[in-house]
Specification:
By secondary structure, the protein is α/β, with parallel strands linked by helices. It contains 10 helices and 15 strands. Helices cover about 40% and strands about 25% of the residues. Strand 11 (about 205-215) and strand 12 form a beta hairpin.
């Protein structure tokens, strides 16, 4: 297994900075974020992706995955075919799809499954045409908005994902499993690997921790992203389970850390109290500026040591 890093949290970095960071930390490459505010955007992917990835490849790095918008693309949109064509030309073998949301106010779960399946069959045709696999990320549910509304996702765990992809060729649509999110809303990792088998295309590497605060006579729980050694996933056991299943692909560090921000929330609230190092990216995500390298660099070394152990 080799380590790559999701560039969402490395948003300010151009190709030269990414190359320097990989050389410093031993990363094998990157999961390239294609979103507004990043070096390659959805509008410029047709012209900018190939030369940008070429710079990384010339430095000996790999780019096995591109991550596009948070919401599911429309497989019938000509712009979507442009994404696939650009990734194929750049030699990127996988594209992370966005998410199909489930909410209490939305359609009944089973009423919408068929429409999601139909879209995925269209993605499979794109993947077959261009040789670039679509992958679906197992993302846990969480509250969004004010007041918070529970938002969940089709395919949030292995069982739900199989509702969508059981009859699709795994060469064209695969599973992007995330043990941290699965620790919140999923099955044990060994069961995930047994359910999905050869459909596992890539694995996310991050961790989550539960935090609590009193709300009257009730305890309210939330989860936050934290450094790899500290959370619900024991990455020593996770790597061993992946090996036992026959997986030998990419481990993709997400570099997401909001435990420091969570401590501010716990200490007095969210509005106007975020530390000056926090900003909001174009997708509305809280990010540290500059990136939290003091947490990411030790995480890379920690996971590399686990992977290197016999």
């Amino acid at each position: 297994m080799d380590l790559i890093c999701f560039t969402k949290m490395l948003q300010p970095y151009g190709a030269e900075e990414l190359i320097a960071f990989a050389r410093k930390t031993g990363l094998a490459g990157y999961d390239l974020t294609v979103r507004d505010g990043h070096p390659v955007t959805p509008e410029t992917i047709g012209t900018d992706l190939v030369p940008f990835v070429g710079k990384l490849k010339d430095a000996g790095l790999r780019v096995p995955l591109a991550t596009v918008g948070g919401q599911a693309l429309s497989p019938g949109d000509p712009a979507t075919e442009t994404v696939w064509a650009a990734c194929a030309e750049a030699g990127i073998g996988m594209i992370k799809l966005g998410y199909w949301n489930w909410t209490r106010e939305g359609p009944h779960y089973w009423d919408n499954v068929e429409s999601v399946r139909a879209e995925l069959h269209q993605y499979a045709k794109l993947s077959e045409k261009f040789g670039v696999k679509a992958v679906i990320h197992t993302h846990s549910a969480h509250p969004w908005g004010t007041p918070p509304v529970l938002t969940s996702y089709y395919g949030l765990n292995a069982s739900s994902l199989m509702h969508l992809i059981a009859d699709i060729d795994p060469r064209h649509v695969g599973a992007y499993i995330d043990p941290a999110h699965l620790s919140l809303n999923g099955e044990p990792l060994e069961q995930v690997l047994d359910i999905l088998k050869d459909r596992v295309a890539i694995v996310a590497a991050k961790n989550m921790v539960y935090q609590s605060k009193a709300d009257g006579d009730t305890t309210v729980w939330s989860h936050e992203a934290c450094p790899l050694p500290q959370g619900l996933v024991d990455w020593r056991k996770a790597v061993a389970s992946l090996r036992a299943s026959g997986y030998d692909g990419w481990l993709n560090l997400h570099a997401e850390y909001n435990v420091r921000y969570a401590s501010v929330v716990a200490g007095g609230g969210r509005e106007g109290i975020a530390p000056p190092s926090w900003g909001v990216d174009p997708m509305g995500n809280l990010v540290e500026t500059p990136p939290a390298l003091d947490l990411l660099e030790p995480d890379i070394a920690y996971l590399a040591k686990i992977v290197a152990a016999p």
